[in-house]
Amino acid sequence: MAEEPRRRALVTLPRDDQILITREFAAPRALVYRAYTTPELVAQWWHADRGTIDSIEIDLRVGGRWRYAMTAKGGFPVVFHGEYLEIVPEARIVSTEVFEGMPEAAATSTVTFTDSPPGTTLAILVQHKNRANRDVHLHSGMEDGLHEAMDHLDEVAVALGRGRG
After folding, report:
1. Is a pLDDT exceeding 80 seen at residue 13?
2. Over the stretch 145-163, which tens digit does the pLDDT of each residue have?
3. If you placed Cys at 82, which of 15, 37, 72, 96 could pair as Cys (CB 3.0 to 4.6 Å)?
4. Is 5 a residue whose pLDDT tops 80?
5. 3-state class (DSSP) for residue 152
6. CATH classification of 10-46+87-161, choosing from 3.40.50.720, 3.30.40.10, 3.30.530.20, 3.40.190.10?
7. Distance (Å, whole) CA 161 – CA 63
8. Which residues, including other chains, have CB under 8 Å from residue 82's CB and lie 6 or more apart?
9. CB atoms within 10 A of CB 110
């Protein structure tokens, strides 16, 4: 049996101040959502093979906070945090997103989980305050890490469906 080709995240720029990331996953929406929102599962994919996870904190409720921290292979910290603004379980999460190395470039992310048989479409719309902040984000090297992280997220969600995880 031939191995299914890797899906790739598609990065588009709907407006001057936005980044839209979409990707298909081979797992049902409930499992992709679980892998995206459970700290011990996020720790399995968020690093994107680019470092070691230091901590993953998720208080998944409106007004709750999240914080992801890792030490990159170069020895420097990579830390993001935010606050949940809206949560529709297994469908939509809206939160602030702050890269601690550049707090002035805070953004708002809207993540949607949509059934797309035989799996799920994940869409992440990152709304920046302006084009300059969007461009810094876009040219930060995030796209390479994004593809690796999304591949791992897919692996984690599929493993959940097989009873592993």
Report:
1. yes
2. 899 999 999 999 999 998 8
3. 96
4. no
5. helix
6. 3.30.530.20
7. 30
8. 65, 66, 67, 95, 96, 97, 98, 109
9. 17
How many angstroms separate the CA atoms of 112 and 120, rounded? 10
CB 86 within 8 A of CB 96: no
The amino acid that residue 145 corresponds to is G
Give per-residue pLDDT as tens, 17-32: 999 999 999 999 999 9
Q: Are 153 and 147 in contact (CB under 8 A)?
A: no
- Tokens 């969600």 appear where? 157
140 versus 49: the higher-pLDDT residue is 49
**What pLDDT, on the 0 to 100 scale, is given for residue 145?**
87
Strands (E), the chain: 10-12, 18-25, 51-58, 65-72, 77-88, 92-99, 107-116, 119-127
Longest dimension (CA), the chain: 50
Q: Where are the domains of the chain?
A: 10-46+87-161
Secondary structure of residue 62 in the 3-state scheme = coil
Q: What angle is formed at CA 81 by the lines to CA 77 and CA 83, rounded to 5 degrees?
A: 175
